[in-house]
What we know:
Layout: H1 4-30, H2 33-50, H3 60-106, H4 109-113, H5 117-126, H6 130-141, H7 146-153, H8 157-174, H9 179-186
Helix pairs in contact: 1-2, 1-3, 2-3, 6-8, 7-8
Amino acid sequence: MQTLTGYKAQFEEVYVSHYARMKRFAQQYLIREEDAENIVQDIFSDLWEKKMEFSSCINLHGYLFMILKNRCIDFLRHKTLEQHTFEEIQNEYTRSLKLKLASLEELDNSLLSDNNIDAVIQKTIDTLPEKCREIFVMNKIEGKKQRKIAEELNLSIHTVESQMAIAYKKLKEALKDYIPLFLFFFI
């Protein structure tokens, strides 16, 4: 076993004689100089920490090349996976935008210009059961919070929530042809 000073001198010799060559090799595959530098630096950091006995290595150049090649492969696999994931996310986002665009383009303009839309909505609200209608109007028309409605009507918050769910379900069924407007006005 050699001393730290002896190891340091041997390490520096290996570093100086191999660093530039290893960096050039890595850069040929990794494109970016800083990525090549980082990988080669990491290799030498690992060698320093392990206190590898360079004199016992039969083919030091081959050993360093093998480590470098494997690190470059790992790096490129990681970058490829990262890029693939990014492209998948981008494709999903593009598909979503296209669906939303198509949905808006298909939205029946007659629904938007229907002079009777208020009457249709009011008629639908009028068909709700009395307590359900009262709670819905207090919440969506008067703008009261569900907790305040529960206090005013002396009901549990759970009852108010249940009645709102019933109102939404009945309104959604009755206004199925007007869903975009229902969502716009009430959600």
